[in-house]
Amino acid sequence: MAAAKKKVKKVKYKRQYYPGPDRVSANRRRAMDSSKRLTKFRSIPDDSLVELLGHRFKGESYVSVHPPLDELVEKYDPIKEIVEPTPGARAGDRLRFLQFADSMYYPPMAPWLRARVYMSRLRGIDTVVYSGRTLLEMRERDLEQAAKMLIETHIFDPARVGIRGVTVHGHSLRLDEDGLMFDARRRYMLNKETGEVEYIKNQHAEVLDNPIPVGRPLTERELRAYDVTYRWDVAPYKSRSEILTVLGRAAAGRVLMGHNPELPLVEYGGLYINEGEEWIEPEMLLPGSRERTSPEG
Amino acid sequence: MKYEDKVDLYDDEGNLLAKDIPIEALHPYKNPYMGEVYRFMKRTTVIELEKLEDMLRTGRVGWSTIVGQDEIKMPWYGFDVELVDNAEYIADELVKLLQVRPDDGTEVRVLEGGTILVVQLSDEVLNRSYDTSPAFTRVVTALGQIITKIANLHPLENLYKIGLVKSALWGRYPQTVGTPPGHPIRPLLKLPSELEGLGNGLKSIMINHIAALADMRTMWALAIGTILEQGAAAEMGYNVGWYERYMLLTSAYQGFNANCLVLDLIKENAKGTVGDVMTSMLQRALEDGVIVKKGDKYPWVLPSGAVVWAAPDLCLWNAYSIAGLTAAAIVNCAAARAVQGVASVIAFFPDMLIWETCGLPDPDAGRMLGCGQGYVFYTHGLYGGAAPGAFSCDHVIVKNTSGFLTPISAACACLDAGTQIFKVTTTSGLYFTIAQEFPIFRNPMKRVAEAAEKIKDEV
Is 0.90 topped by the overall pTM? Predict the structure, then answer.
């Protein structure tokens, strides 16, 4: 605090979220950047969302796991006074979960990116990334609010993102004849008349009273525009060289810092050499060694 | 003084405790208060007399899981013996049997109306022993003799009852490597034979217990957790030579609120997300010159315009990034008032930080991320795991950082409003009593700072 005050000129740090010059990286950045709005694609009534989550009946009051914070007698802790609890925490709601499975066929969201999106956009969360699916745990009423954002915007594709509390398998399986991700519990189907995907079971695979339409599947064109993964036909291999540079730099930095954080090193473009050593342009190097390709080089 | 680095220490309300403290004054082998804590942890054993009495009456011994404590019942060997009523007598006898010479510091306290005894061995015993075994072995042997005397047992008359006394006091040891979980006689730290590896002893305590010892005060738990973890780290050889400054700086910033960094980050982001805390941390790092922009052209700015941040001093960068991670976890858990989210912040904050800074080494050279991934899996019901606070700090899931993970969990356990099955009050009630009875754990931040102030000219 004292050190910061001494500084006369204050430089502002600008969040950059993610490197990469192309559309795929831009999509990743946009999803993580909480100052940017996600495009709204569909509107789902609150009651339908509650039914989809399947943690309480619509209209039912929230079950609490502890008394509201205002009534709770707790030991003194300044941190509890500083940080503002979420509405769900304030009311003492249960912790409930929402789990998404993302297909690997052009989904608008990917499991590993979800964690970063949740961490940037939501407060008071708990998330776990498994293979092909991502769990989100929050206080019940906060979760319902978050679910609205996560399901109504472009990061949810009714066909290739599934709301699945159980039996999540489907990430790497071929799409069915209607272009929907495989679901062993058949929670959703395409209504051919309306062209919309309808959930006939909630995320726990319990049959719903009425099907809940969650909108039309995104078109191939839209999916390619919103794709967040590098693949041959969306963004070619070379376009991610920036990301590979960053990955290499992070890996080298970890090894060197883990080995000896005091090593005097000189770094250039993600490559490290010892202090005092002569710098050789990477393209002049023999692969896998610090030798030059030619004596003249 | 080996290092130039000096820090100001603040308490959890933002008050300055000590100014210009050289980081070496916070070394686990130099700071007097930290030494006191280690001494206390090693010499203290808790005896639950009421439970022991009940076990002897019902012949309930030698179980193997915490929930199956009635697994073996042999009431036909059981006998009535009044231990709680004779607590004062037992305490006096224990002192007589355990002390090396009169008034050598051996102490036995009777708590909670005689249901609990707290035994503290003398320094003489611990100094001369190879490890902390006497805190268990000598205590149970002495207790066995006292119980035999009170119950008036004799091998010629009550052979099997004496066998039961052994099983009640030692559990199945030596068939098993240690005592059963939930054993009535337990040193504060694990038995040496139960440890996960060399030098893990000082951190062989459950995360929830640390929260209880800190009386559910977030930053006190951070401090106590850091003291224990750094003690163990020193014992494991983690802070020798190359790593000394790295460990000292990081523990100062994470555990003892150096330069008020952690508290400032929490205050700035009282309504923020994990990502916001990261931004504030990087802002602070930029202001303090911890991260720098080396140039305006490639390779320091990538074609997309992303700045490749560089950290001239990796030790200080690690201290800042771990302080940011600590604040982020606290902000996230305090917003939900639930401890469950701590593991995921530990797992994903470093991942976000790598991309944000374009490849600076993440907290603890990737160990926080790696350890956090395992932690996040095993703290969630899908894989049948336990609560974040129910792990011992030397558990194989959480032990593999340089001692920076469990203090965060302990701090966040303090923020839980009661959402867990393994609540602090459920698992660690006894430790609240210990913290109340022995004021050594009161206000650890202040005491570390005072101790550092005292030795700052000598280090």
Answer: yes
